[in-house]
Design goal:
By secondary structure, the protein is α/β, with parallel strands linked by helices. Among the domains are: about 200 residues, Rossmann fold; about 110 residues, GMP Synthetase, Chain A, domain 3 (2-Layer Sandwich), CATH 3.30.300.30. Helix content is about 30%, strand content about 25%. The strands form six sheets. The chain has an eight-stranded mixed sheet with strand order 7-6-5-3-4-8-9-18, with helices on both faces. Strand 20 and strand 21 form a beta hairpin. Helix 1 packs antiparallel against helix 2 and helix 7 crosses helix 8. The radius of gyration is 23 Å and the shape is globular.
């Protein structure tokens, strides 16, 4: 059933009912089966209720892909609360801003939190902070997540330890029954273009998007799937495409808090995932492992790729290694997040994000008139469906701008073909004019990426601070290409200039080139164009 007013925690309740002994989550120490997971969730839910958490109250989760994230998120839904989510990698000033907006009663985070920041959080009116350790469910602490030694300074009042809390908790008996339009998640954007926006997603929206994904892959079998959970669960893609989908299908979540390619390859070899949702950067990093052939990826059946454009050579290369099908999709946090996907086993078109999901409509609108355009013409992609957000948290003007007459204006330029497949050309804010010529950076990036020595590339209009026309298109003097060479490969700017000279018209050839060891990224893994403008 695509549309339901049920609470999302029912995915877990039904999985435990039907598959109590099946592994639900795996961590470095071992597995929690569905019966054990539900026991932990009920204990945490009982604690939240004892602390006075009411339906609609926010509980802020700032955790990596640990079992504690799964337990806490499901417990929040159990009591009718709202899971406020962000990246554990965000800098402290941005975290404080998000907490100020969300006004949570409780924050659950890592024990790497220092006393000064803990006091700042408490000063915002947060009643309690729960500190969790990776060692509670894992043998090894994830060192890259919160760098530096564990703080030794004394904590302010109101700070509790996860393990002690769980020992004292009295299990809650019955989950809050209602879902529907009640808020389930408040997910903050990276905030890279200004003040962060909180996206409110209801139980109905997240339920619908989960069921849309489940119906898209007809080969998915309940009680038999294993998902390699590398995507951050605190991001909409990980929340829907890993956590909720995994619970709905009574699958096993193979949790990874590290994006190191050798670690993910080792998890694949040891635990044989069947599904591996990921990003182009993730798949490309795996392909560049020097000992790639020593790992076993043969169990993987399907890789659903999102977050950024999928280069053809990455798609084909990863398919050769895994024998899996790598399909590209599209989504954004405001849409739960997934709206389009290439059909598994169906017609696939290179460079396309596929077709709209069930009950999802999409249109391409003219930038000048706002009217729908026919196939083959470029405009803004707008979408409508049951998975759309309720709105931006306490920002009615921004909500009204994004949601118009039930349609979500994505801010992405796209075009459809005669079969209804959608092709994206980039963010409207990324597109620019060089002279009188309209430039779509993605098309240039795709050509440069075909160079055998190029790992990643980002093309920007230059210089920074350029004016925009009435349609929001930047008016620039030139193009600047930022290129990351493949590991072990050497490439020069002169070689790259010669490469594009025979493949692109002169007005699409970057005038400026910069070679980098890596591209800067937001806390959620997207290329940070703002950082490139600010650094060069």
């Amino acid at each position: 059933m695509l549309i339901s007013d049920r609470n999302l925690v029912q995915f877990l309740v039904e999985a435990e009912r039907d598959f109590p002994r099946r592994a639900a989550v795996w961590s470095e120490r071992g597995a929690l089966n569905y019966q054990q997971l539900l026991q932990e969730v009920r204990a945490m839910a009982g604690l939240l209720q004892a602390w006075g958490v009411q339906p609609g109250d926010r509980v802020f989760l700032l955790l990596p892909n640990w079992p504690q994230f799964v337990i806490a998120c499901e417990a929040i839904w159990w009591v009718g609360g709202v899971a406020a989510l962000s990246s554990p990698l965000i800098p402290a000033p941005l975290l404080i801003e998000q907490l100020r907006k969300a006004r949570p009663r409780i924050v659950i985070t890592s024990n790497r939190l220092d006393a000064t920041l803990a006091q700042s959080i408490r000063d915002l009116g947060v009643e309690r902070i729960i500190l969790s350790s990776g060692r509670e469910y894992m043998r090894t602490q994830v060192g890259w997540l919160f760098r530096g030694p564990k703080p030794k300074t004394s904590m302010p009042g109101g700070v509790h330890r996860w393990r002690a809390c769980m020992r004292e908790a009295v299990a809650s008996e019955t989950p809050y029954p209602e879902g529907g339009e009640r808020a389930a998640a408040l997910i903050f954007s990276g905030g890279t273009t200004g003040a962060p926006k909180g996206v409110v997603l209801s139980h109905r929206a997240l339920w619908a998007n989960t069921m849309q994904l489940a119906g898209w892959d007809e080969l998915m079998q309940r009680g038999k799937e294993r998902l390699l959970a590398a995507l951050p669960l605190g991001h909409a893609y990980g929340l829907t495409g890993v956590l909720n989908l995994g619970m709905h299908k009574a699958g096993t979540l193979i949790l990874s808090s590290s994006l190191k390619p050798d670690h993910l390859a080792d998890l694949s070899s040891r635990f044989h995932p069947t599904l591996f949702p990921g990003t182009p950067a993730l798949y490309a990093a795996l392909l560049n492992l020097p000992n790639l052939r020593s790992y076993n990826f043969k169990s993987i059946r399907l890789c659903a790729c999102g977050s950024a454009p999928l280069p053809v050579e990455v798609q084909e290369g990863f398919e050769r290694v895994t024998r899996a099908q790598v399909i590209e999709g599209f989504g954004l946090t405001e849409a739960g997040p997934i709206t389009h996907c290439s059909p598994p086993g169906g017609m696939r078109k290179q460079g396309s994000v596929g077709l709209p999901l069930a009950l999802t409509e999409s249109r391409i609108l003219s930038l000048s008139t706002g009217l729908p355009l026919p196939a083959g013409e470029i405009g803004e992609l707008v979408v409508r469906g049951p998975q759309l957000m309720t709105g931006y948290w306490e920002e009615p003007e921004a909500t009204a701008e994004a949601l118009r007459d039930g349609w979500l204006h994505t801010g992405d330029l796209g075009v459809t073909d005669s079969d209804g497949y959608t092709y994206l050309l980039g963010r409207m804010t990324d597109c620019c004019k060089v002279g009188e010529n309209l430039v779509y950076p993605r098309r240039i990036e795709e050509v440069i990426h075909l160079h055998p020595s190029v790992q990643e590339v980002a093309v920007l209009g230059w210089p920074a601070g350029f004016p925009r026309d009435l349609k929001g298109i930047g008016l620039v003097d030139k193009l600047h290409a930022f290129v990351v060479p493949r590991p072990g490969k050497k490439v020069s700017v002169d070689e790259l200039r010669q490469y594009v000279q025979v493949r692109l018209p002169d007005w699409l050839r970057p005038e400026l080139w910069t070679l980098l060891p890596q591209l800067p990224r937001t806390p959620f893994g997207k290329v940070s164009r703002l950082s490139l403008y600010g650094s060069y």
